[in-house]
Amino acid sequence: MNAFLGLPEFIFDLAGKFSAAFLLFTATLLFLPAQIIDDHVLQSVRNLYKTELWVGLLFSASLFLSYIGKTTSAIVIQKINACINDRNLKKKRKNNLQRVIDRLKSLDQRELLWIKYCLYKNQQTISCAYTDRTANSLENKGILSQGSGSVLSLPYTVKDEVWAYLKNHQSEYLPEKNQKQQKEFAEELRNFEKSFRLV
After folding, report:
1. Is 146 in a helix, a strand, or coil?
2. pTM
3. Tell me: the pLDDT tens digits for 78-103?
4. How open is the CA angle 166-168-172, to the nearest 5 degrees?
5. Strand residue runs (E) in the chain
6. For residue 163, what pLDDT band results from cuts at 50, 70 and 90?
């Protein structure tokens, strides 16, 4: 039920759309200069029903303005709500990412190797058995998301927002271009690969 004259919503919308045409019609009859109107019938209508035309003009104008106001306010409210929801969503994502970043600072050695391996290989997804503790731990920490597959080979993917953060901070995880460090790091990765079957 619409607040305006207690009209049902669909009737109010229909009346609002037709009020524009009636408003234009009554305004034309009332304000069009007499010398432009050649039709005697139109002149007679204006002279005989001038009061009624004014009432129709005012009523149709009020109905049309009410309809425009309602439609405009609905659009504005929708836009405001969309902006609020978008802002809340961004804030929620930012807070979630911050929690994940904090968890990245407290990874155990094998979890850290998983991250280093992905960055070194530029590989966002690793497949392993469903029972792999490291994969499950990283998933529980919000770093990985599990894909579909067999229990012996499930894809675990670093979440996009986490991956973007890691790529921007990969120098904190990968060794400098020092021959000794590179050799030790390569050995670490080989042992990591041997610890489970990578598909």
Report:
1. strand
2. 0.53
3. 888 888 888 888 888 888 888 888 88
4. 65
5. 125-128, 144-146, 154-158
6. very high
Looking at the structure, tell me whether residues 61 and 150 fall in a common domain: no
Q: pLDDT (tens digit, 9 = 90+) per residue, 21-76?
A: 777 777 776 776 665 656 566 667 676 777 777 887 777 777 777 777 777 777 88
Rounded-to-integer distance, Cα 74 and Cα 67, Å: 11
Question: In terms of residue numbers, what domain contains 178?
Answer: 109-194
In Å, how far are 44, 166, 180 from 174, measured between CA atoms?
Answer: 92, 11, 13
Question: Do 86 and 148 have their domain in common?
Answer: no
Model pLDDT, residue 3: 47
Query: Is 53 within 8 Å of 28 (Cβ atoms)?
Result: no
pLDDT of residue 64: 76
The count of other CB atoms within 10 Å of the CB of residue 113 is: 21
Do residues 181 and 152 lie in contact, with contact meaning Cβ atoms separated by under 8 Å? no
Write down the residue that tokens 């994502």 correspond to. Answer: 93
My answer on whether 97 and 143 are in the same domain is no
The CB density around residue 140, as the number of other CB atoms within 10 Å, is 10
Q: How many CA atoms lie within 13 A of 175 on its CB side?
A: 15
With contact defined as beta carbons under 8 Å apart, do 12 and 1 qualify? no
Vertex 155 angle, CA 150 and 161, to 5°:
150
Q: Is 113 contained in some domain?
A: yes
CB 110 within 8 A of CB 135: no
Residue finishing a domain among 75, 102, 129: 102
